[in-house]
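Hi C.,

You asked whether I'd gotten around to modeling the 222-residue construct. I have! Everything is below, sequence then structure, no commentary in between.
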Amino acid sequence: MAESVRPEPARSRREPQQARSRARVAQILLAADTILSEEGVAALTVRRIAERADVPIGSIYQFFGDKGAVIDAVARAYLTESDAAIEELIQAAETGEGDWSDPVGRMLDTFVGLYRSHPGYVALWSGRHMSDEAALIDEANTELITAGVQRVIAAQARLPKGPELELAAQVAVRAAIGVLHYAFSRSPRGDDAVLTELKNVMRQYLASFSGGSVQGVRAAGS
């Protein structure tokens, strides 16, 4: 299982315990995500969040110390889903579950789907409008994804884990993140032409690294 160390939320008032409180927090975070995606970071204020969520301002301060705490919570919620997604990919790759004829396409499609379902986080991520805490969480997530990609490659190509595989995974993940930034700067849902080119580049790179032994990479990229 991939592991990461996450900073604890510093500015949250308290964690909701009751179902009603959890629903209220989810309502607040959805409103913040929508504002971020539709209006941008500059438009995000506690008052605007309250208006969009249709809740009293006091309800927000009941759970969050300030606007920054809401932003951190938006980031944390997305990254929790991201962690779960990479764990599912690892398990599927190591057990052979599902279609692995195009490993690169399967991995990238998973994360593109997450970005598309969380446009507010993409707005934060693309502009790097994150607190130091959220940036640390984001970096921990990148390391978790990298560790997961190593395991997926090792399982699909039957390669031994080691420094070479670790470096290949680091290069692949960090290069992909850069191109994903570009794709989502061109279109709110990620520019399809850019995403297609990213898949082609990653297929060729991993095929080259593995000698074509990553299952389906050479055929899918040809």
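If it helps when you're writing up: The longest helix spans residues 67-95.

Thanks,
B.
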